[in-house]
Request: fold
Amino acid sequence: MDADSPAGFLLILLALTAGSLAWVKLMSRRRQRALGTLAREFQAHFCSGDRFRLTDRVAAQFPIAGAADLRLSDLIYGSRQDHRWFVLTAEYTLGVIRPKRPFRRAVSIRESKLEPSLPLEIAVADPADDMPDQYRALLASAARG
Reply:
């Protein structure tokens, strides 16, 4: 089959798409393994999705003005006597007039077990750090309690 033929071109595109999907999956698994290891280091738990359905509560109180399309993933979580804590990835967009720009930052959340009606305590990591450093910095303070 010739690469100049429509069938050859289609096969090349399919191969490139399959390769790209495999690469994304591989990188996702690497990130999840690294976060799982980090969670164990802090005697915490890890899940890749928003198992606790935090998105709606966090979106209502998110400390970055204008953030939209909030998605939470890669949760590291733990519990203390009076509170639960989470460190996770928040993906959101900013922008109203120009095209929205995507952002991805680590966020820590603390909620009271005793008073569930209290607002969440939310802290956003320094954007200058890369994601592993953002997680590590927030975990150091969240896991201390």
Notes: The chain has a mean pLDDT of 90. The two ends are 63 Å apart (CA to CA). The helical segments are 6-41, 55-61, 131-144. The first helix runs from residue 6 to 41.
